[in-house]
Design goal:
alpha+beta, four-stranded antiparallel sheet, 6 helices, globular
């Protein structure tokens, strides 16, 4: 993953992906642009992401390593969608791995710097909480954990997502 300093490309991706429309507040001055090559990680499992990513272009896969060492594919992510939104809502959430399937371009907001602003941004909260990928991802993990007899692995973050 590499941060790219290209204002023209950044503006093009912002426009094409309706990035500005995801927020009620101005986040442009905090927005970074990242290029992620196929096979590279957007988020590593178990590490809290430093950014809230908005996948503007490309595809990625979300997966989790189970207690028995098996890897469970949770979902495929396609642009546009948020990555790391659960970690913004709940900083105690155990991160899942997100790996690029093809070259990806992400617009990103630093969580430490923007968390309070994002939590106060009603439009962003509405978009994140109603994002079918967020609901699907958490639902698939819950179904898989229950099916695998690992229901005790259901974290407070998952309960939080379904209690909204």
């Amino acid at each position: 993953m590499k941060e790219i300093q290209n204002k023209i490309l950044k503006q093009k991706l912002i426009t094409e992906s309706d990035y500005v429309g995801q927020f009620a507040t101005d986040v442009m001055c905090h927005t970074h642009l990242f290029q992620i090559l196929a096979g590279d990680f957007v988020v590593r499992e178990g590490n809290l992401p430093a950014y809230l990513f908005y996948l503007a272009k490309g595809r990625a896969k979300l997966y989790v390593t189970l207690a028995n060492g098996r890897i469970a594919l949770v979902d495929f992510l396609s642009a546009p969608c948020f990555i790391g939104e659960i970690e913004v809502l709940d900083d105690m959430h155990q991160s899942r791995a997100v790996q690029a399937i093809e070259e990806c371009w992400c617009l990103a907001l630093p969580i430490k710097q923007c968390r309070a602003q994002l939590l106060d941004d009603a439009l962003c909260q509405q978009r994140v909480k109603s994002d079918p990928l967020t609901v699907t991802t958490n639902g698939l993990i819950l179904i898989h954990l229950a099916y695998s007899g690992l229901a005790s692995a259901i974290t407070p973050a998952f309960r939080f997502c379904f209690s909204r």
